[in-house]
Specification:
alpha/beta; UDP N-Acetylglucosamine Acyltransferase, domain 1; 11-stranded mixed β-sheet; 9-stranded parallel β-sheet
Length: 275
C-alpha cells in the first residue's frame, strides 16, 4: 500500500497515488507530494512542503514549512530528463530551503544522514553532502559541490560550483568559497582563507591532544615553512604519518579548484592544542 495505514495525512495535503509514504509519517496541511516520491518511516512534513518527482527520503527526516525538494536544476542545459534527489535519514531541513535533483539523465543530488540544513538557502544539482554536516541559513551551495562529513558552513556563504569542503572544516559567515576548504581547518575572510585549525570542532568531535598536535604540525608545514606545496605535502607524509594527516594530503592532491592560503603568512595559528 503506497500510504502506510499508520501515517497521518492532513486533509488538505495532495499526495499522488503512486507516492510511497512510510509508517508513522506525518504529512502537514497543504503539502504536495508528486508521483515517484518515496518517504521513509517517521517522516515529518510541516505545512506547505512540496516534494517533486524522483525524490527519495530515508527515515526520521524533519522537513519544515515552505521547503521544496527535488526541484528542476537551475541549469540552462537541463532538458527535463529523469534524474534524482536522494536524501538519507535523520536530517533536519528547515524553512524555505530548496534542493534540486541532478542535471544529466539518471544523475543525482545526494544528501547523507544526520545533517542540519537551515533556512532560506539552496543546494544545487549534483551536489553531494556527507553526514552530520551543518549548513546555516541563507547559504547557497552551487552545482557539483562536495561537502565531507562533519563540516560546518556558516550563514550567508556562497559556495562556487565544483568546490569541496573537507571533513571537520568550519567556514565562517559570509565567506565566498571559491576554492576548496581544507579539512580540519577554520576558514574566514571575504574570499576564503584558512585561519588555523578548527579547534573547537575537533575537540567536540573527540580528537585527542595527539591528533590535534599532529594536524598543527601538518598545518605549519603547509603554511609556515615557506616550502612549495608539493614539497610540504611530501614532508607531511614523511613526518606526520597519521590518518587525518593522510586525508589532508589526499584532499589537497585531489583539488581541482585549488586550495586557499593565509593572507598573512607571518601569523601563527590562534590557539594551541592545550586550549
Amino acid at each position: 500500500m503506497p500510504i502506510d495505514p499508520s501515517a497521518t495525512i492532513a486533509p488538505t495535503a495532495r499526495i499522488h497515488p503512486e507516492a510511497v509514504i512510510g509508517p508513522q509519517s506525518v504529512i502537514g496541511d497543504y503539502c504536495v507530494i508528486e508521483q515517484d516520491v518515496v518517504l521513509g518511516a517517521h517522516t515529518q512534513l510541516e505545512p506547505y512542503v512540496f516534494i517533486k518527482r524522483w525524490t527519495t527520503l530515508g527515515d526520521h527526516n524533519e522537513i519544515s514549512a515552505g521547503t521544496v525538494l527535488g526541484t528542476d536544476p537551475l541549469d540552462k542545459n537541463f532538458k527535463g530528463d529523469r534524474s534524482y534527489l536522494n536524501i538519507g535519514s535523520n536530517n533536519k531541513i528547515r524553512e524555505h530551503q530548496t534542493i534540486s535533483r541532478g542535471t544529466q539523465p539518471e544523475s543525482e543530488t545526494v544528501i547523507g544522514d544526520g545533517n542540519y540544513i537551515m533556512t532560506s538557502g539552496h543546494v544545487a544539482h549534483n551536489a553531494r553532502i556527507g553526514n552530520n554536516t551543518v549548513i546555516a541559513s541563507c547559504t547557497l551551495v552551487a552545482g557539483y559541490v562536495q561537502v565531507e562529513y562533519n563540516a560546518f558552513v556558516s550563514g550567508v556563504c556562497g559556495i562556487h560550483q565544483y568546490s569541496r569542503i573537507g571533513r571537520y572544516a568550519m567556514v565562517g559567515g559570509s565567506v565566498r568559497v571559491n576554492q576548496d576548504a581544507l579539512p580540519y581547518c577554520l576558514h574566514g575572510g571575504l574570499y576564503i582563507e584558512p585561519k588555523g585549525l578548527n579547534l573547537v570542532g575537533l575537540k567536540r568531535a573527540g580528537f585527542t591532544k595527539e591528533d590535534i598536535l599532529a594536524l598543527r604540525q601538518a598545518y605549519r608545514l603547509l603554511f609556515r615553512s615557506d616550502l612549495r606545496l608539493q614539497d610540504a605535502l611530501a614532508r607531511i607524509e614523511q613526518e606526520v604519518p597519521t590518518e587525518h594527516a593522510r586525508h589532508l594530503v589526499a584532499f589537497i592532491r585531489g583539488s581541482k579548484r585549488g586550495i586557499p592560503r593565509p593572507r598573512k603568512m607571518n601569523s601563527a595559528p590562534s590557539a594551541s592544542a592545550d586550549d
